[in-house]
Amino acid sequence: MVEVHQSKEEIIKHEEELKNNFNMNKFNLSGKVAIITGGNTGLGQGYAIAMAKAGADIFIPTYGTLEWDNTRKLIESVGRKVEFMDVDLTQPGIADKVIAEAVKKMGHIDILVNNAGMIKRNPLLESKDEDWDRVIAINLTAVYHMSLAACKVFAKQNYGKIINIGSMLSFQGGKYIPSYTASKHGVAGLTKAFASEMGAYNVTVNAIAPGYIKTENTAPIRAQKDRNDEILSRIPMGHWAEPYELLGPAVFLASDASAYVNGAILPVDGGYLVR
Prior knowledge:
Layout: H1 8-21, E1 33-36, H2 42-53, E2 57-62, H3 69-76, E3 82-86, H4 94-106, E4 111-114, H5 129-157, E5 160-165, H6 178-198, E6 203-210, H7 219-222, H8 225-233, H9 247-254, E7 265-268
Parallel strand pairs: 1-2, 1-4, 2-3, 4-5, 5-6, 6-7
Helix pairs in contact: 2-9, 4-5, 5-6
């Protein structure tokens, strides 16, 4: 083994670089604008509030007539601005309109969180074509179009952060959810493909792969004792995640603290994948 000896001057220079180039402000999102699709409910709302608490203003494209007042109140209570857009992200050409509206309302954009998604459960032999089409459209095709539309802006400003939401089903086959599994494998692939090209524009593209989280979507599984026990036996942490346990990783990937993290699929699973 070859020993490398640093001069005193090199050591001092290294220490100065560490001191000057990293501080806790790297995690601060002040001055940033984050677009969070489906950010009005569930984990999406959690990401929105967490990033607002970290200093970002929030733009939320969401579909349907769900009440916005609660989310608005929570974000404005921490002194941040929030705007909403009622939109179906599966409609042709809509992604460019969403990005344009976000820039118009917020002044600029820095972060895109592709959170909106859905799941349909059926045994494989009972699968319905319409379920496949809808799940792929929102979970994968919309992610592609939103990411591409955002990248056109990010490339011009030479800065941007994209955070996709994968799943344990980005790695595994699952059961009764072929469309969801295919979409989340696709999200992992899109993340890597975009990262490989957009890094040259100082744009990072990463994904969070949540493990088993206590959400409305997982309620049917948690209600099945045998399935619930099977899942818990594979989680070294020994419990289903609370939604708030996803928020720190999201803020990290949205911040400059993760400036050299690109193309990663980050499992937040309590160790589920190691067993």
